[in-house]
């Protein structure tokens, strides 16, 4: 079990100056403590409202209050949320910020910023694709049932069945939102439909939807879970019968209606890929970049940064070519890395098991060295799993699912092993460090285990911070001796190169009107990744405008702040303390993170 330090360490005492708020001598420490306690109670009360309104969030947190229900997927919920945000902003106007202690003032600023963003973003509430190949509801809801809905009792099993029944209304509400989006000129390009339709049809494969020797993914999951309850044969048979009935009566028509709607809408879809095609598309994309990067960088600035980083990394790769004695061009080396059998496990079940075993070994080895890099470690464990068959064809290459806050579910590093030729062994180290340790697992698990920050901060998400940390975590192991194999170090560079190309392609598609094919060609020409990776990545850019720019922008900021700290602190610099400063206030906008680091430097030098 990993151990965790409380945030009430001496380190956090250094952070008091990050707000740059002048002390008001009229308030005693006792008065400030009282005012801060009251505001933190408000934050918790409002967070609990969010939990109460979201049965799915409850499940993720290990709360079974509304275990048989789904969230509200109606478009009216957007207006309700807007009104709630405005109401909360009105409350904050009455808060005397001079009466708050520094930590609570930081929470106040973050909460206010979050609400202001929510109000501003209302204009773009329909500027997304709820059905897409990356995380559409058609696959999200079944994945939620399989990965989140635990069955520890008969009541839990009945709640599972209740959720199966509720899928019909959920998809009706989601489909109505799709109809409204089309009326507003928001539709995904043609390529999205076939993938979403294929995944949706996959849900309806197997018993009880059709006569088959195999159960459908949801029925198989339900049966496996209730088998652990040690029920009588009759009880188990009755529950399975009820689940089958719900699958046939509710889940099947839910997906059939969705499929019918999408097939019809597909006829009107175009190949136009970028957000520029939306009404107010340029303003929307500018807003998306600001939200994802938490900076004011323009699309052109991000594009140019990408081009610069791609050139730098190509130079470092050429040095590795020399090290391993490869003769030829960088493109020749890319082709060698793409095709040489030594870098790939077989596309068989045995090959997949070898990959998972090696990924677990990499994480275990890194775990044994964490004390060199961190003072604070998470309690939550981490497991490595393959992406489930029903969604592996369209899902991303790898991703992380945070642990349950009550410890009932570990953090999970998912590797997509659908096509083993897209999972080279030379990238295994970097991928495991990013998704697992010291990457997302460290950051997200530590955040939700913090004991003295409001819940909205524990579960907040600033993509540039979270993904910037993940990408930074690919580099850190090299600095303590990992990546001994030069090919593995090439894999690290290949993944950093990939994120740098994202800066170029995302802005290319959404601001410069690049086509899908132009984006694919750029990846193929500038990276060693197989064409399937290039296609998937560009299709991800298209359905998630701006998101992919956050990784490299975030990593660069963390590295920039680390270099500033090293230079100004000299022998006083401790990488473990630096990492604590990064992690022990939960996710932060990059501007706030910069203030934090500057305050730490100032306090260390005092």
UniProtKB/TrEMBL annotation:
It comes from the Bacteria. Keywords: Coiled coil. The keyword Ribosomal protein does not apply. Residues 212-246 form a coiled coil. It holds the Pfam family DUF885. The keyword Transit peptide does not apply. PROSITE patterns: PROKAR_LIPOPROTEIN. PANTHER family: DUF885 DOMAIN-CONTAINING PROTEIN, GLR0591 PROTEIN. This is DUF885 domain-containing protein. It comes from Salegentibacter chungangensis.
């Amino acid at each position: 079990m990993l151990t965790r330090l409380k945030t009430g360490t001496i380190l956090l005492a250094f952070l008091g100056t990050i707000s740059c708020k002048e002390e008001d001598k009229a308030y005693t420490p006792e008065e400030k403590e009282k005012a801060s306690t009251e505001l933190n109670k408000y934050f918790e009360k409002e967070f609990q409202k969010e939990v109460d309104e979201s049965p799915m969030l409850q499940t993720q947190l290990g709360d079974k209050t509304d275990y048989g229900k789904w969230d509200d997927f109606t478009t009216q919920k957007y207006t309700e949320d807007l009104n709630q945000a405005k109401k909360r902003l009105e409350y904050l106007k009455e808060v005397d910020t001079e009466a708050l202690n520094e930590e609570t003032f930081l929470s106040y600023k973050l909460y206010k910023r979050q609400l202001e963003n929510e109000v501003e973003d209302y204009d773009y509430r329909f500027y997304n694709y709820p059905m897409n190949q990356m995380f559409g509801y058609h696959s999200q809801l079944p994945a939620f049932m399989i990965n989140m809905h635990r069955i520890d009792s008969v009541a839990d099993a009945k709640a599972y069945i209740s959720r199966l029944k509720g899928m019909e209304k959920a998809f009706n509400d989601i489909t109505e939102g799709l109809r409204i989006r089309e009326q507003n000129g928001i539709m995904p390009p043609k390529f999205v439909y076939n993938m979403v339709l294929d995944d949706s049809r996959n849900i309806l494969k197997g018993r009880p939807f059709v006569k088959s020797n195999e159960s459908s993914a949801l029925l198989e999951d339900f049966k496996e879970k209730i088998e652990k309850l040690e029920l009588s044969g009759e009880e188990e048979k009755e529950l399975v019968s009820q689940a089958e009935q719900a699958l046939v009566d509710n889940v099947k028509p839910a997906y059939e209606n969705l499929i019918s709607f999408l097939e019809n809408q597909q006829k009107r879809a175009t190949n136009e890929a970028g957000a520029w095609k939306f009404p107010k598309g340029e303003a929307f994309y500018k807003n998306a970049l600001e939200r994802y990067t938490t900076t004011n960088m323009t699309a052109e600035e991000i594009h140019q940064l990408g081009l610069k980083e791609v050139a730098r990394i190509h130079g470092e790769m050429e040095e590795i070519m020399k090290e391993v004695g490869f003769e030829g061009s960088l493109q020749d080396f890319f082709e060698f890395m793409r095709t040489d059998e030594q870098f790939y496990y077989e596309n068989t079940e045995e090959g997949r098991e070898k990959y998972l075993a090696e990924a677990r070994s990499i994480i275990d080895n890194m775990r044994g060295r964490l004390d060199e890099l961190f003072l604070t470690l998470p309690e939550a464990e981490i497991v490595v799993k393959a992406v489930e068959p029903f969604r592996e064809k369209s899902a991303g290459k790898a991703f992380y699912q945070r642990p349950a806050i009550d410890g009932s579910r570990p953090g999970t590093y998912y590797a997509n092993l659908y096509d083993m030729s897209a999972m080279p062994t030379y990238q295994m180290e970097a991928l495991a460090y990013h998704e697992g340790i010291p990457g997302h697992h460290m950051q997200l698990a530590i955040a939700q285990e913090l004991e003295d920050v409001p819940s909205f901060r524990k579960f907040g998400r600033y993509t540039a911070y979270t993904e910037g940390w993940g990408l930074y975590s690919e580099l850190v192991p090299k600095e303590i001796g990992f990546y001994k194999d030069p090919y593995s170090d090439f894999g690290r560079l290949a993944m950093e190169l990939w994120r740098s190309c994202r800066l170029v392609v995302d802005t290319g598609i959404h601001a410069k009107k690049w086509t899908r094919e132009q984006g694919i060609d750029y990846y193929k020409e500038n990276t060693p990744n197989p064409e399937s990776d290039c296609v998937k990545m560009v299709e991800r850019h298209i359905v998630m405008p701006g998101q992919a720019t956050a990784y490299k922008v975030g990593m660069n900021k963390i590295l920039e702040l680390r270099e500033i700290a090293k230079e100004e602190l000299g022998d006083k610099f401790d990488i473990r303390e630096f990492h604590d400063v990064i992690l022990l206030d939960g996710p932060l906008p990059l501007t706030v993170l910069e203030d934090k680091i500057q305050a730490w430097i100032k306090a260390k030098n005092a």
